[in-house]
């Protein structure tokens, strides 16, 4: 049994899709969440800048005595996972491999779409992982750079003409390719599930990077004997690098739980 917390990070709200799953499947675990809201979005940045940000995010999280880290960010997972693993002596789980495994389990036609940030699509990591796991898979990738800023601004609801217009522009050509599975390869995108599902239709199965990585983390904790005492109730703590108010408002709606611990602001430049 290991009562130390798990560190989870993302550029902003996106990693909450993993937190929501973690709260359901590992309710006994304490979580320390960091959202780098001062520097969001990460998705258009260079590999070098992303690695610098990711190192700072990990250094902040490691100011707590953690047992594991979940990189609840597609962009950091696709560009910096190997380096972060090599530099840190604790288990680190990313989103790419678990998400690809799930997509290959659900696809029947082996025609898989992937939407993610520019940096993630540019890295080719999802595509390479899918092909390594199944050389016969056909992969169609598409960056959706406007999704993250819209999500961070709370434009996540059906009937919002801005997000619906942007989503149609990105997704209708993808739907026309005849994919039967769509990977939401950026952890912000599951906040848009309703809108994406409306456009893609019932014949396309959506696979969420945030959710799959939470399941992977659970498997890893079990395998390594790192689970907390299952009879207790764990608590999440939230930290951000800019105004906590907006984060708390959207986070409470999304997590469907009162954020008893309000988000606290930290200076990420100190790390
Ligand atoms: N949610 C992150 C991802 O999964 C980062 C998105 C961004 O900041 O652009 O890629």
Helix content: 40-55%
CATH topology group of the largest domain: Rossmann fold
Q: How much beta, percentage-wise?
A: 15-25%
**Low-confidence segments:** none
Global Rg: 17 Å
Q: Structural class of the helix and strand makeup?
A: alpha/beta
- Quickly count the helices: 11
Characterize the main sheet. Answer: 6 strands, parallel
Show the helix and strand layout.
Layout: E1 6-10, H1 16-25, E2 31-35, H2 47-61, E3 68-71, H3 74-87, E4 92-93, H4 96-106, E5 111-116, H5 118-123, H6 125-133, E6 138-143, H7 147-152, H8 161-176, E7 181-184, H9 193-200, E8 205-208, H10 209-223, E9 236-240, H11 244-255, E10 264-265
Parallel strand pairs: 1-2, 1-3, 2-9, 3-4, 5-6, 5-7, 7-8, 9-10
Helix pairs in contact: 1-10, 2-3, 4-6, 4-10, 8-9
Short description:
The chain has eleven helices and ten strands. With 271 residues, it is of the alpha/beta class. It is globular and about 50 Å long.
Would you mind describing this structure in some detail?
The chain has 271 residues and is an alpha/beta fold. It folds into 2 domains: 6-94 and 211-270, Rossmann fold (3-Layer(aba) Sandwich), CATH 3.40.50; 96-210, Rossmann fold (3-Layer(aba) Sandwich), CATH 3.40.50. The protein is 45% helix and 16% strand. The chain has 11 helices and 10 strands. It has helices at residues 16-25, 47-61, 74-87, 96-106, 118-123, 125-133, 147-152, 161-176, 193-200, 209-223, 244-255, and strands at residues 6-10, 31-35, 68-71, 92-93, 111-116, 138-143, 181-184, 205-208, 236-240, 264-265. The strands form 2 sheets. A 6-stranded parallel sheet has the order 4-3-1-2-9-10, sandwiched between helices. Helix 4 (96-106) packs across helix 6 (125-133). The longest helix has 16 residues, at 161-176.
